[in-house]
């Protein structure tokens, strides 16, 4: 199937990155969110990120203008109905995602492929509540989307071969690399990465190190580009906790129990960079550890 138009639901950090790369690859993008402010902020951020690519010689001013012209926004979810491919990138909560697919369903064209950028939630379960489980897939981008090479493709139990092949072509057209993962909690990358982050929070909780020493250890001792606590703040602590809960519930193994300190930060609304406070405080000129 030929994909030309793409609907993106949720204009947070992932939604804006996804809109960015699709527009640059020549697709017409329609971005939606529940908040006009989120839509305006996303378009401004995409503009800034592509401008940085222009200044570094990675793209041209003409290509930037063409990509920005391909992005439209709407507050009406129903407007996404006629698109060829829908990518849901709203908050990592199953009830939120189910409600979105339910609201969208009456407006969908018969050929539309539905995908979710979920970090952890069962694709089979999300798909089963729609009218097209055979045209439903997990389409998991990594953050920051314009920079990270990998996209995980996750087939639910009912996903058909044609949908999978179409999505492989879409990934290729973005210049990215697909990894196929089976539909088990948190798939591949987050099955390994998020328990590592959770373990770093345990190390902090138990006083093995402080924020700076833990991050420095993994950066200089294991050559990670970001320390685990810095990365947790970058991903969003609410998202990290949601993924740990899916692993814990879905695999029924206590080794996945979320660290109580991670829960406490989320309860405080200290969600990381997006709220300007998490394991670091980002309100000043330099990030300052909060522990
Ligand atoms: C939770 C999930 O479900 C799955 C996930 O996504 S898990 C998270 C996966 N992501 C990671 O692990 C990221 C780890 N961190 C890194 O790889 C690096 O720190 C980083 C790529 C984010 C930044 O790299 P850096 O060398 O410190 O910074 P910097 O030199 O400023 O940036 C490198 C490039 O990224 C771009 N960039 C950085 N942050 C960006 C952002 N938020 N959006 C767009 N582009 C960005 C820069 O413009 C720069 O581009 P060029 O190479 O074209 O000039
Ligand atoms: N952060 C990461 O590193 C990665 C995240 N993901 C996944 O991507 C998805 C989005 O994550 P991320 O971008 O980080 O989250 P953000 O919190 O940055 O963005 C989520 C956006 O979705 C909006 N939203 C909430 N409910 C709805 C709705 N009903 N309809 C439309 N928009 C809605 C939110 O609005 P408001 O703020 O008003 O609630 C917000 O703008 C999640 O499933 C996450 O697991 C995948 C890969 C990496």
Automatic annotation (TrEMBL):
Domain 3-hydroxyacyl-CoA dehydrogenase C-terminal: 187-282
Domain 3-hydroxyacyl-CoA dehydrogenase NAD binding, residue spans: 5-183
Biological processes per GO annotation: fatty acid metabolic process
Transmembrane segments: none
Binding site for NAD(+): 10-15, 33, 92, 97, 119, 143, 274
Molecular functions (GO terms): NAD+ binding; oxidoreductase activity, acting on the CH-OH group of donors, NAD or NADP as acceptor
Keyword annotations of the record: NAD, Oxidoreductase
Pfam families, per database record: 3HCDH, 3HCDH_N
InterPro entries reported in the protein's UniProt record: 3-OHacyl-CoA_DH, 3-OHacyl-CoA_DH_CS, 3-OHacyl-CoA_DH_NAD-bd, 3HC_DH_C, 6-PGluconate_DH-like_C_sf, 6PGD_dom2, NAD(P)-bd_dom_sf
Similarity comment text for this entry: Belongs to the 3-hydroxyacyl-CoA dehydrogenase family.
Protein name: 3-hydroxyacyl-CoA dehydrogenase
């Amino acid at each position: 199937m030929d994909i030309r138009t793409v609907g993106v639901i949720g204009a947070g950090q992932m939604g804006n990155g996804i809109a960015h790369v699709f527009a640059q690859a020549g697709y017409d993008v329609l971005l939606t969110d529940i908040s006009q402010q989120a839509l305006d902020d996303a378009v401004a951020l995409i503009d800034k990120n592509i401008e940085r690519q222009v200044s570094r010689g990675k793209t041209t001013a003409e290509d930037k203008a063409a990509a920005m012209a391909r992005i439209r926004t709407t507050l009406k979810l129903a407007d996404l109905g006629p698109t060829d491919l829908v990518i849901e990138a709203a908050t990592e909560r199953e009830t939120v995602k189910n409600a979105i697919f339910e609201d969208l369903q009456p407006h969908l064209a018969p050929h539309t492929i539905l995908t979710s950028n979920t970090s952890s939630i069962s694709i089979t379960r999300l798909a089963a509540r729609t009218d097209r489980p055979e045209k439903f897939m997990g389409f998991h981008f990594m953050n920051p989307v314009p920079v990270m090479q990998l996209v995980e493709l996750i087939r639910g139990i009912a996903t058909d071969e044609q949908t999978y092949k179409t999505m492989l072509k879409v990934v290729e057209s973005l210049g990215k690399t697909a990894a196929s993962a089976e539909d088990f909690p948190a798939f591949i990358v987050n099955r390994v990465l998020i328990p590592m982050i959770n373990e770093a929070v345990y190390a902090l909780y138990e006083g093995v190190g402080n924020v700076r020493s833990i991050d420095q250890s993994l950066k200089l001792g294991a050559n990670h580009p970001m320390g685990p606590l810095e990365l947790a703040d970058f991903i969003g602590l609410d998202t990290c906790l949601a993924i740990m809960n899916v692993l814990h519930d879905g695999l029924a193994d206590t080794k996945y129990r979320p660290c109580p300190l991670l829960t406490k930060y989320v309860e405080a609304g200290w969600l990381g960079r997006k709220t300007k406070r998490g394991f670091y405080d980002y309100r000043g000129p330099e990030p300052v550890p909060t522990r």
